[in-house]
# Entry
Amino acid sequence: MNSIQPSSGNRWRGIIHEYRQYLPVTDKTPIVSLNEGNTQLVRADNFVEAINGNCELWLKYEGINPTCSFKDRGMTMAVTKAVERGAQVVVCASTGNTSASAAAYAARAKLKCVVLLPNGKIALGKLAQSLMYGATTIAVEGNFDEALRIVRELGETGKVEVVNSINPARIEGQKTASFEICDQLGRAPDFHFLPVGNAGNITAYWRGYKEYHAAKKSDRLPRMFGFQAAGAAPIVDGKPVGEPNTVATAIRIGNPASWPQATAALKDSKGFIDKVTDEEILAAYKLIARTDGIFVEPASAACLAGLIKCVKAGKIPEGSVIAATMTGHGLKDPDNAIKTAGFEPIVVEAKKEAVMKVIGL
Ligand code: F0G
# Structure
């Protein structure tokens, strides 16, 4: 018996335990969890003030998950189902977060993990994660879409379990973020803002909101507002992008796997999808850190850049309740953070006077 932690009741045990009646598991399913989920929903009034908004903005801070992104919600389900089916090897293509998550959950489940990454286009922290968790890490000379094509082909051999969001278990796990938001707010938001890459998350959130509404756990359905990076905006532009490019490497995707599902979510929810430039992304990325002390990765900031655009365009009625997913932690991408901060440490002699001078005292 562990005398420190309570044995039941108030201890969070991960999204499968907490939301099991909404998930495809049975009492016999061998759950692989790192106690993901239960992430903070933080109100960001300073940011709203800075952008001259007139709304309630709630940030779902998914960067505090075990591998520092929202992917852990889907990965606990995907790896759990892989173990249940007796798989030995899990494989994914990734822009860095899916691979970090797959590598961690596979380690815990004692499965072999193979990740395919676009060579040279992965944020440093994410690369460190996949290596540290011990995944076989393959840098493909191509982009995410090409890596995913190879992974699909590997899946067809029947020898590996694909844990990209084309695996339905991933979407099931990720939808629990909507449940949490409704539980935390005591209602569903009027709008849900999120970045869109491979389009799994917008699909998952919409499913979650609909299921909770049908179960009478929430009183309304939000409008889903998605944002792509201007250099990787196939859904907005209405055609695949052969050579996607953006500073937000997490969403550097030209042909999203869940494109039709995302289109359906946008239509059903009376939603909206738009693109934001790298400059707009980096401005929002810096602003949310400086105004509210929330450090996210550039891809996450794409939806904040989108909010700035929407507020300017008068698209948000006064007093609206908005939830926005901060998909990944800022520490994942130290290179962009240091470049974007706009200044460097000030080197001084090891003397009080030298420090006082810098402070201006
Ligand atoms: N934000 C971050 C930080 C991401 O890592 C991703 C996707 C997204 C947003 C977009 O979510 O793909 O469900 O539309 N990252 C994937 C990966 C592609 O491989 O880590 P999506």
Summary: Residues 1-7 have pLDDT under 50 and may be disordered.
